[in-house]
Structure formats: C-alpha cells, structure tokens
Amino acid sequence: MKSFRFRLFAAALAVLMGSAIAKSQTTDAPPIRPAHAPGFGMGGHMEFLSKKLNLTDEQKSQMKAIMQKEHPALQPLIEQQHQLDLELRQYSEGGFDEAKVRALATQKSQIQAQLTVEETRIHNEMYQVLTSEQQSQLKQMEADREARMEQHMKQAPPAPAEQ
Length: 163
What we know:
Shape: flat
Order of helices and strands: HHHHH
Mean pLDDT: 80
Distance between the termini: 35 Å
Radius of gyration: 18 Å
Structural class: mainly alpha
Strand content: under 5%
Low-confidence stretches: 26-42
C-alpha cells in the first residue's frame, strides 16, 4: 500500500516536473516529448497542482529553478528514448527482426531506468520545497486518486476468456 502511494506521489511530481520542463524548453528546436508523457498538456497539470496546493511564487520559482538545473541531464535521455521509439516503430510498420527489437528494448529499458532514477531524485527535491501542510495535502490528493483508480478497476469488465 505504501509503495503504491509512493508511486502515485512520484507520478504527481512527474506531472509537475514535466510541465516545468515544457515551460523551460527554448523555442530553438521543437520539443521532443518522452514516450511516457501523455499527449494532453503537461502545463495544465502544473497549474492544477499549483492552484490545488496553493504554491507561493517563491515555491514556483524554486521548482522552475530545479527543472532548469536538471533539464540538461534529462534531455539527452529523453532524446535517446525518442530515437529508440522511432527505431522500434520501423519494426512494427515494416519487417520484424526479433533480435534487433530485443536489443532496442534492452537499450530502452536501461534508459527508462536512468530516467526513473533522475525523475525520482527531482521529485524529491521538489517535494522538499513544499510545506508540511502542502505535503499532507498532496498525499491526500494521491490517496483520493488511488481510491478512484481502485474503484474504476473494480468496475472494469472482465477480460474475455482466451480460446
């Protein structure tokens, strides 16, 4: 239960981090969206959390500074993951070569592990910016989301039986 809550907390901070990354990117090059970033706007999540947690301007600027500081470490990993996704796509659209797909999948899993470590470290830094009241509020939001997800999963129709 506790590890699930931590994962939800990490997901909420990932959203916060993702929106900060999106805002901190320059317009020189088109942004490369990581495969794990949903298509809907990450900036909206940052604003949502900012309003829900009533972040001060100082907290917002501290979080933005964290993201600007960490962006150079994340960007190469995100770009590598994007490139691997493009390479994998050719095997789903063209000829399939299991050995090459496995090699690419192994590379992708290593990059995802590095991204997870970096993102978790960044989430921790950002979490430390929050007051204890905001931390409690965020934990409650995550618990509420977890309860909604569990309820949704209970209502999901069973998977069809394989024949």
